[in-house]
Amino acid sequence: MSRSTTPAHGAAPVHLGMPSFPRAAAEAVHDRTLRANLRHATHTIREKRAGAVAELDDWDRLREAGKRIKDHTLRHLDRYLEQLEEAVTGAGGAVHWAEDAAEANRIVTALVKQTGEREVVKVKSMATQEIGLNEALRAEGIAAYETDLAELIVQLGDDRPSHILVPAIHRNRGEIRDIFADRMGRWGRPAPEGLGDDPRELAEAARLHLREKFLRARVAVSGANFMVAETGTLVVVESEGNGRMCLTLPETLISVVGIEKTVPTWRDLEVFLQTLPRSSTAERMNPYTSMWTGTAAARARDGDGPRTFHLVLLDNGRTGVLADDVGRQALRCIRCSACLNVCPVYERAGGHAYGSVYPGPIGAILSPQLRGIGSDVDASLPYASSLCGACFEVCPVAIDIPEVLVHLRERVADRGGAGRRLEKAAVKAAGWLLDHPGALAAVERTASRTRALLPNRPPGAGAWTAEREVPELPPEPFRDWWRKNRT
């Protein structure tokens, strides 16, 4: 694992070059279809999640347990990663360490080439999106086919994900039907003639399209929701069954997983298998929970799972995040997306405005730490929030997202520049004034006596006053009023 504290710049290339959040959001809020799609989807998921969580009397204790497990693991991550590597290797797998996105892409590309195959099927994976794996494979002549329904919609539509759990949340049924009818034939089996927008018809079209790829594929690429250090077991939870097909049918499985996805024991895993499904899909448990340890050959069970397994452990800036006492809590995230579904900013701006595969409140604190705050996009993300705190209230591992946002805003401000120099000068002047009561009283009296001459919008403060009214100055300072009226 890299020991460097310098964040790696590993965002998917498709997201680079985007405008800062305020510019992207200003455009998105005028898209009425987008806002209607988001409002309907997020409110539906939010209400279902609240009902699923309310069923558990010990939800708060589970939440605290998840927080403590994650914090303990992150404090001792080096030890648990070594234990994980030993267990995976002992079960017949191979472990590869990737310091950044470029190294991870080189490793995966080389592994696929070794098989002689020119196509892979993929389980939905945020880590592979983060590093831009599909683009890296395509550059080497290897086709990567997404098999998650929402990811398939995004891929066929030459689009970008806009939600952690439901990447195509910005699309409605009519748009999906049009994408299937127009694009499916270019990627494989075409959509049925006369395809309608009924969800069952759309799901059946996707099932038929993907079935051919599942049966033909010899290499699969996945992520993982969790990795159990004591046994080297990887876990993927999903609702459709596509993951199960990818994890069992191909001969070679390559899993790219962020180092923070480690949990020490099976007993620790049990906590998250209760909190993740309720927080994400509002289910008591996921319809498909796939777990694998090593290879079929090592288990002496012919035909049961891949015969070759590679685990690529991805740093890509995570070590740098660990070095930040406040910011490291972002690595507790289990990718449930509950914070997105309650966020008033996300609901109106959508996921694309965040310029990252990690949208919403968690993306606003995770992306700037993984990629650094050198770009306009990443420097703007900590401000993509009203700090209402709804995200913290629903987080199943109690990440205090508002605290981290404020912390990152301070880091952005400390970068310097003309605006920062002006701010420092103003704070220094205000500090001197507050330390000298006589001078402060004189300024207050002067301001009150000349209040009719003062502008409603002070020069240079247009960005602040555009949405706010400047308070009216009273006829006299409070200290003078108090001196005259106290008894």
UniProtKB/TrEMBL annotation:
Domain of life (superkingdom): Bacteria
Keyword Transferase: no
Pfam families in the cross-refs: Fer4_8, LUD_dom, LutB_C
Domain 4Fe-4S ferredoxin-type as annotated: residue spans: 330-399
Residues covered by the Lactate utilization protein B C-terminal domain: 410-485
Keywords of the record: 4Fe-4S, Electron transport, Iron, Iron-sulfur, Metal-binding, Repeat, Transport
Domain spans labelled LUD: 81-313
Record-given protein name: Lactate utilization protein B
Organism: Streptomyces chengmaiensis
